[in-house]
Amino acid sequence: MFAIHRPLGLRCFRDTISRSYLPRTRLYTILSSSTRLNRSKKVPSLGSGVPGLSQEGLAAERFLSHLESTYDALTLSHPTLWLCVAAIAFSGLNHPEAVPWIYQHAVQKENMDQRLMARKMKDALFKASVLFGIPKALNGMAALQEVLPPELQDEKPLRKNPTSPANLAALHKAGQAFFSQLYGEITPTEQPFLVDSYPDLGGPFYMTTIIYGYVYSFTDYLDAAETSLCIVAALIASGSPKRQYDNHVAGALRNKASRSELEAVQQVVSAVVHRCTSARKAPIERY
């Protein structure tokens, strides 16, 4: 049985990450006074069809249950989000082979919509690709795609084609609205900072229309709060510097995520980081 850990303090959380992952990582704990709450449709076993991973590996069923209980102990909001967060963390740490097992864990639940869950996980990885790179996100998506039955594999984009002038204008407007909501009162200084750093990246087309419009503002499967929490998860997994981390934590709160949800995301990513880095040094613990 797993003990539910108490909320991590600033030094405890930062030291845990620095010992097991990147010494230069600077993370700041979201302190909360959240109350702890107590909270089958089967798919075929993935068996040996997933190269390099057995169910006793990194994504062992008991470890995934531990992540679920850790998340649920802190918040009951967005109850399936921890699955997306775990997929982001494993993919960001170069272990995409764990993603199919996360999906299998999800769809074993009663009344779980398999198509919806697959789309949520893929869209979470797509949004995380902006933070830790397309190759890592793509490998996680591809690993999941390999185990989806044909009827659950999307053949067309879920987002509207952005090439028409009308769609580009709509995306730019949506991107600006999402950016302004996330950055709040620092929007007037943050956008010029991005443009000044490199106009091709921070300019209105790429950053506003594509990143914040096409990628982030699409909320059919992950709402604004979930999107922000996925961004925070990707930043933690990739060892983001303080400026970006602080901005997106504040942005998540503006997007109506709670402090307890932010702490739950930190706990899940921290557990995955610890498990992956420990596995590089010693045999994987059998859960």
TrEMBL record:
Domain called Carboxymuconolactone decarboxylase-like: residue spans: 216-268
Annotated InterPro entries: AhpD-like (IPR029032), CMD-like (IPR003779), PTS1_Protein (IPR052999)
Domain of life: Eukaryota
PANTHER family: CONSERVED MITOCHONDRIAL PROTEIN-RELATED, PEROXISOMAL PROTEIN 2
Protein name listed in UniProt: Carboxymuconolactone decarboxylase-like domain-containing protein
Organism: Marasmius crinis-equi
Lineage of origin: Eukaryota, Fungi, Dikarya, Basidiomycota, Agaricomycotina
